[in-house]
């Protein structure tokens, strides 16, 4: 096989391998892809408790304790139809691992409220952490709020990726069945609002650009020497 052809095949193989190595894009930040139940009249349950090992919340794992999967007919969601009480019957943790570019900075925006049922503790705290980033606590006191007036407010958390994938986690510190409420998690690269998805796409384009450059050099060399 000619050296040029061999080189091109090796480069093509490396591009394909690099693309395949991506874990998964961030998904289901609004928790709409979950266990339901799809509400049907007054007979359907409006809350489903998810414990460790439950895989029904797409993209997310339940790391400890349990969480309540809420329908907006039980309490108003920040976005879509569903949100979470991060304390199900006890404090819970959820986590998701997704593609990142090592060294790139990311901003996580999420909607935070609190279970308004009046249960203890009065102030509900949610801990947010990402691989290589700081654990940061966010607190909310839902006094005066109700299921139809949740008082959702956006919060932001930033981290710099330490590898090609990052695990983002949310942990309730409310050791009861009444915790911080979470919805509408968004992850963007940098501070300009570029979707996180575009980062691996950019690196793929960069590799394709390198392929074009190397082919150009090889062809030019061929013309000169041939
Ligand atoms: Ca939602
Ligand atoms: Ca609960």
Q: What structural class do the secondary elements suggest?
A: alpha+beta
Q: Kindly state the mean pLDDT as a whole number?
A: 85
State the fourth-level CATH superfamily of the largest domain.
Galactose-binding domain-like
Largest sheet: 7 strands, antiparallel
How would you sum up this structure, described in words?
Strands 1, 3, 4, 6, 9, 11 and 12 form a 7-stranded antiparallel beta sheet that branches. This protein has a 5-stranded antiparallel beta sheet with strand order 2-5-10-7-8, with no helix packed on it. The chain is built from 2 helices and 12 strands; from the N terminus they run αββββββββββββα. The chain has 226 residues and is an alpha+beta fold. It folds into 2 domains: 55 residues; 171 residues, Jelly Rolls (Sandwich), CATH 2.60.120.260. It binds calcium ion (2 copies). One calcium ion binds next to loops.
How do the strands and helices of this protein lay out in sequence?
Layout lengths: L2 H18 L26 E5 L9 E4 L1 E6 L10 E4 L7 E7 L5 E10 L9 E7 L5 E5 L12 E8 L4 E8 L7 E10 L4 E2 L2 H28 L1
Antiparallel strand pairs: 1-3, 2-5, 3-4, 4-11, 5-10, 6-9, 6-11, 7-8, 7-10, 11-12
Helix pairs in contact: 1-2
The chain binds calcium ion (2 copies).
The site of one calcium ion (CA) has 10 residues, from β4 and β11.
How would you concisely characterize the structure shown here?
By secondary structure, the chain is of the alpha+beta class. 20% of the residues lie in helices and 34% in strands. It contains two helices and twelve strands, in the order αββββββββββββα.
């Amino acid at each position: 096989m000619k050296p040029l052809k061999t080189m091109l095949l090796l480069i093509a193989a490396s591009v394909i391998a690099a693309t395949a190595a991506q874990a998964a894009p961030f998904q289901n930040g609004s928790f709409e892809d979950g266990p339901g139940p799809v509400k049907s009249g007054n007979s359907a349950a409006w809350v489903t408790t998810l414990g460790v090992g439950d895989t029904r919340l797409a993209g997310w794992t339940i790391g400890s304790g349990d969480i309540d999967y809420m329908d907006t007919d039980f309490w108003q969601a920040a976005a879509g139809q569903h949100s979470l009480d991060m304390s199900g019957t006890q404090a819970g943790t959820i986590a998701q691992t997704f593609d990142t570019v090592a060294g790139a900075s990311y901003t996580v925006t999420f909607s935070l409220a609190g279970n308004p049922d009046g249960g203890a503790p009065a102030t509900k705290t949610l801990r947010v952490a990402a691989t290589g980033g700081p654990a940061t606590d966010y607190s909310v006191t839902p006094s005066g709020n109700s299921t139809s007036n949740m008082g959702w407010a956006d919060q932001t958390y930033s981290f710099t990726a330490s590898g090609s994938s990052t695990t983002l986690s949310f942990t309730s510190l409310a050791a009861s069945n009444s915790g911080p409420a979470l919805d509408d998690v968004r992850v963007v690269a940098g501070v300009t609002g570029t979707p996180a998805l575009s980062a691996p796409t950019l690196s793929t384009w960069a590799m394709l650009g390198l392929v074009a450059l190397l082919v150009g050099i090889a062809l030019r060399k061929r013309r000169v020497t041939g």
